[in-house]
User: Fold these one by one.
Assistant:
Number 1:
Amino acid sequence: MESEPTLRARPARIPGLFALAVGLALTGCGFLDSPATTLLPKSDFGQTSHRIFLQILRWDTAIFLVVQALLLVAIFRFRERDPAVAPPRQVRGSAVLEIIWTLIPAVILTFIAFPTVAAIFRTQATPPKDALRVKVIGHQWWWEFQYPDLGIVTATDLHLPVGRPVSLEIGSTDVIHSFWVPPLGGKRDAIPGTTTRIVLTADTTGEYYGQCAEFCGASHANMRHRAVVETPEAFTAWVAKQKEPGATPPDGSPAAAGLRVYLLGTCIGCHTVRGVSGGGIGPDLTHFGSRRTIAGGILPNTPENLARWVRQAPLVKPGSIMPEQKLSDAEVTALVAYLLSLR
Ligand code: CUA
């Protein structure tokens, strides 16, 4: 009983600690405008995940309030009033209590599992016939998007038509990644040698931030993507553009000089520009200039960023396998002009 006065001497700290805990908890939410928020869902899958989250939050809040009320009753009703009175009967080791407080959480978890498991099955069920198929392939550290029925291959920017079901068939060429666009719904692992699936219908046009959600090596945090949800007309126009071969720069232009650098350098070993080169290791560059970002989605696609990236990719994205290019400033400028002309 010697240590008790110390404990009792400190209640003044408790409100401060409580305020700190509440403050820290509030920093975890409230940022509805965060690009990675799941609280403003933009697809049926997103709505389902959000509904389950709210449902569980309501149950948890009720459970929390009941537990706190019981705790307060116990604290005040059974506090020590008279040190001379013997302590109440001790119930340590009671089999009945142990069974009860094992069963209650089991029942609660079962209730949480029902809607969760149902949603997991529903969102990877056989897609409807009119669904747009997209093969989503994880690489260290960028996402490739193939549209097998449209003959299109792109990277980082995932274009989707609003209101049409999409079947994302997710795989990986190296390690386990996890595909996740927070406003469009839950994440799903990209596993080498197998295909996982998300079936969803985006319901609002816009650009949504995505982030690999499974630790996959040095640049896991730099493995990002964008879902570009657009009107059916805009999507059709994008598809038509993407089906064209890579642009041929006019003779004598800086881009034409860049094409020569591209052809004579190491680029063609790894990259495809349809009609020009057929490398299969790095992203397809046929319409590179139309993409919003570079380097796995971490930098805006500007000439300055692209020059940095072309020179020393591993400095921009640690672990990148794109080798350092021994190019003169003029060659870099030309190469950048060529790549950006591939719209
Ligand atoms: Cu890919 Cu983390």
Number 2:
Amino acid sequence: MLERKFLDNQPFLAIGINIFDFRGINDIFGYHNGDLCLKELAFRLSEFDGVAARLTGGELLWLPEQLPTAAFIEHLKATLETPIDTGDVSINLKVSIGLIHCPKDANNAEEVFKRMNIVLDEALTTRQFILSFSSELGKRYSRRLSIITELRHTLEQALEEFSLNYQPKLDLKKGTVTHVEALIRWTNARLGFVSPEDFIAIAEHAGCIESITSWVINRAIDDAARFREANIDVSVAINLSAKDIMNPALLQNVLALLKAKNLPTDCLSFEITEGDLVKDHDKAIIHLQAFRDEGFEIAIDDFGTGYSSMAYLQNLPVNTLKVDKSFVLNLHKKDGDQKIVKTVISLAHSFGMNVVAEGVENIEALTLLADWGCELAQGYYICKPASADNLITWYNDNLETKWF
Ligand code: C2E
Ligand code: MG
Ligand code: MG
């Protein structure tokens, strides 16, 4: 039917409809009711002019007779989401809708199916429930695929493509560096340098973040031992993802590695983003508490960009808030940012927590933070992320530096 549409030589819209968590519906209500839902959706579609077909699982393809308006697509979504009464239960469906404008975005049936996959996938991950395919989206998707393929390859047989950089955190009361943050770098043979901002989130989705974290922890502990040997007494902060926090073996692995190197727990610390804590809050608290019980410091990273409430902070076993750099980069110029940062500092202090400000790029910001009682500062003004060797050199060169 799709091929025939292309032969008409008229622009048309291919609409993909994906039932949200169809597997869950089958699990909860049984396959029989899952099938009923599909039939009911097909029936609702047949009330409009066009042809519908099932793609896979909970996905349908619909080719409307006429080019629909945006308002009609909204109406279609609402119609499909009307609760389905099976006689025993009422099932509330959520659907996402992907739109392919043909022939602009696809020239044949195969391209429609490929792009439908892309657009429905993107709609699901970005939670935009009505989404049109665009060439930009196609490019992003292929980039994501190549990152996944290359990451797997690197993890299996090219670990030397990873390296760790360290960025100092300056203690604003002592005027010395007491912590460094470990930041991963990846230079891939095919893709070149890929920023962690691009590949960490992808690794989380693709299920390979645990292998990355394991590499980071091993390397960070080796380097922590080197720093000690060089008389550099710093705690190395490791960034953890949501999956890492939930990994019950992580803490024991870390402790075993430290013991093998004869290192105390205070030479490592951890950073976790707010968003990662919200997902499975109660379990996260238990796991974090176990880390705190062993004496590890834990910071909430990128603080201010997530959804923390006061009540939530009170129960969190963390000892540091790390103010997101978006509030710090222009601190000297922006009154609003100053208000936010001052508020975070007093909030943290009232909960008995420390504050780290990241993204300190100038002396003005550094001075303001010190005046407001912020404990630690990190940013390009102090030092950019550097290799372990360069960090050791930088540290020794700056032993006498008067930062203010
Ligand atoms: P993050 O943990 O918030 O790290 C701070 C980021 O800010 C780093 O970017 C750092 O290079 C950058 N930065 C530091 N000072 C300044 C400054 O003065 N100005 C500006 N403009 N930027 C500054 P990077 O290294 O690209 O890392 C980005 C993010 O990737 C990190 O954000 C973290 O969320 C993630 N990441 C990095 N390494 C790891 C890792 O080993 N494991 C995990 N799970 N995530 C990592
Ligand atoms: Mg961090
Ligand atoms: Mg951050």
Number 3:
Amino acid sequence: MSKGLFITFEGTEGCGKSTQIKLLAEHLQALGHRVRLLREPGGTPIGEEIRHTLKHSEHNHAMTAEAELLLMNASRAQIVREVIRPALAAGEMILCDRFYDSTTAYQGYGRELDLEKVKSVIDFAVGETKPDLTLFLHVPAEVSAERLRSRQSTLPFVRDRIEEADRKFFERVAHGYGVIAAIEPQRVKFINGAQPMDVVCKTIWEIVQPRVPKVGRW
Ligand code: Z5A
């Protein structure tokens, strides 16, 4: 069976994941690769409904951290089986905007749920399906805040429950990402996301290129 490549993008809000994932996809497609862009939570019809419940539903104010953990992983269990496994088996290249490291960072470190229990839930959701490579875009909190401010000024306001958390929550999330990157340096590559877009893009390509099979093999 042919095997694709599974790359995830991680980091705090406004770190530039969505920007860089599109640039990488364009680059790979131009080289002839079959690329699939996904996001979490979401990426399937069921996952997108869960995403709405998690972020924007007017009924989500009372959501507990435990319910949040399980909903993130319900969406993940669906996308893994409905999309990721079949696409990898067909030799596609998957670029996913967030995956299980987000759960460790946000629900584990941010919401301060028991890290072993968080890991068990993730393991149940993903089974053997794990990223080959994770690109962790790091930006200081003030850069993240400034980018979100300038983006919000150009868009209509849409309430997002997760963004309503306090500053300490996001500090714990950022710390969690640092721990994740330190524990798995082979898989998780630390990238300075505060650099200009073209520099970040070039850094990402230097990391990704050696892992990309030649198109003729597909
Ligand atoms: N979450 C969770 O808690 N647990 C989980 O398991 C999972 C997720 C999977 C998803 O939100 C939320 O779910 C997220 C974590 C939680 N919550 N929070 N808070 P989302 O999908 O709506 O958004 P996001 O993932 O947080 O990403 P984002 O805020 O959209 O940012 P981004 O994709 O990383 O950045 P961007 O859109 O590419 O860039 C932001 C702006 O900066 C934009 O105007 C760009 O033009 C600009 N930008 C980008 N790069 C640069 C550079 N290099 N220089 C200058 N300006 C730049």
